[in-house]
Amino acid sequence: MAITQQTSPELQEAQQYVNEVYETVKKRNPGESEFHQAVKEILDSLTPVFAKNPKYRNNAILERIVEPERLITFRVPWVDDQGKVQVNRGFRVQFNSAIGPYKGGLRFHPSVNASIIKFLGFEQIFKNSLTGQPIGGGKGGSDFDPKGKSDNEVMKFTQSFMTELSKYIGPDTDVPAGDIGVGAREIGYMFGQYKRLRGGNEAGVLTGKGLTYGGSLTRTEATGYGLVYFTAEMLKTKGESFNGKTVVVSGSGNVSIYAIEKAQELGAKIVACSDSNGYVYDKNGINLATVKRLKEVERKRIKEYVTEHPTAEYFEGCENIWSIPCDIALPCATQNEINEASAKKLVANGVKFVAEGANMPSTLEAIDVYLSNNVYFGPAKAANAGGVAVSALEMAQNSARLAWTFEEVDAKLQTIMKNIYNNSVNAAAEYGHAGNLVVGSNIAGFLKVADTMVAHGVV
Ligand code: NDP
Ligand code: 2IT
Q: Which end of the chain has the least Cβ crowding within 10 Å, N or C?
């Protein structure tokens, strides 16, 4: 991504240094394209920091930060409903603990491998730093596919997964949560198994818990609401608001549903959402109650939506959702769901704002298309940080053994999203890239972790 213009010898030297580190990452982590992509985006953004502050280079912060403190992989054997033994692979990357316990979700999806877990864990370091909360970066998951599995099979798998994972986590060391394929049901089974193994009630070991056993109000809504709060700040900067805007939201899971809910509340019309099979276009505006029932209660496919809303249309495949004209695009499904061609379609149809609810949903080429076409772009690390921010608030409530109201947590979430936005805007301006939230959020997230690593010495 050609973010940095080489205008001074210091910048050129910094760019060369960053390129060398990036080449080493590629060599050390062969074939891990998603991890390479996440590292490239951040390293390019950090070039102005290295040009200005030699202390980070002198302390080899970059060389250290791209290497996980630890990557754990493990066998997850379980017995399916037919009595057959199944084997999945489990992961936990404990990437960086400079500013707090490792914190990050667990993803259950057949595509999960070391590259996916490392890209997510690496991004989480900077995202968590941006929240202003004391949390380090981690991520985990498995190539287990919850789709089509019975409740009993999901329970058997998650119990086996937790039996091994429990050796490495704890309220002050590493605190997992949900991500794709891991919601309230899975967190419940995992918490039950952890409690059984440990014999105590360490509420703060997982977040996203149910409200009856230490969960925080607003955590379910936090990522989607936070995304909309962040996007509202972007709109405000340009003298606009959600009111009357046409919005496309991809996905129909946790992040999408609550992004749709808050954007609708602010007066926007959401005309499309999707799942991994295809997308629904409803020119009258998506009926969220139907999506919630189909996805949260019945665990059905999004194509069922059109049987209840015959004026809506269903299209197989995900890519063409980005050819629907809109003012605001909120990708909330998965990594690399918007490529260069899709970004060009969005631009051709007049999109003005793109903000990422999913992690790394835009390819590097897609980001270049936004930046060079005056689309105001809110990158994932900043825009979707509301989920993990409220997870940190859940940990705080668990430590204090009390529970805040929905309004209290929601108010804190709004403040956090505003702070992330302002800190990103300010860092971008300070380092010569005014208006570029990719550069701004990467630098703002990096500095706090890097300064702490310098303070801690070579560890
Ligand atoms: P869910 O499992 O609740 O929903 C995921 C949604 O994305 C589903 O609609 C799913 O469709 C769709 N999807 C998943 N994989 C693909 C794929 N390969 N191609 C197309 N669509 C796909 O997960 P979340 O809503 O929690 O997560 C969505 C994104 O947000 C992820 O990138 C996650 O990392 C990120 N995120 C989540 C946070 C959270 O708090 N949950 C916090 C910050 C970011 P289907 O049902 O067909 O699989
Ligand atoms: O990507 C993410 O930030 C999450 N899946 C949420 C992590 C968390 O610990 O709440």
A: C
**For residues 319 and 162, what is the distance between their CA atoms, to the nearest angstrom?**
35
Instruction: State which amino acid sits at residue 235.
Output: L
The structure tokens 């989607």 sit at 224
Strand 246-249 to strand 269-274: parallel, antiparallel, or no bridges (unpaired)?
parallel
> Residue 187's pLDDT is what?
98
The DSSP result for 286-354, as a single string, is --HHHHHIIIIIS---GGGHHHH-TTSEEEESSGGGGGS--SEEE--S-TT-B-HHHHHHHHHTT--EE
User: Considering only CA atoms, which residue is closest to atom 21 of ligand 1?
Assistant: 276
Span from the CA of 1 to the centroid of ligand 2 (angstroms)? 26
**What's at 142, amino acid-wise?**
S
- The domain limits of the chain are 9-66, 70-201, 222-374
**Cα–ligand 2 centroid distance for 163 (angstroms):** 21
pLDDT tens for residues 301-354? 999 999 999 999 999 999 999 999 999 999 999 999 999 999 999 999 999 999
Signed CA dihedral, 32, 181, 366, 231: sign only: negative
Within 8 A by CB and 6+ apart from 149, the residues are 157
Known catalytic residue at 139:
yes
Task: Tell the CATH topology of 222-374.
Answer: Rossmann fold (3.40.50)
Architecture of domain 70-201: 3-Layer(aba) Sandwich (3.40)
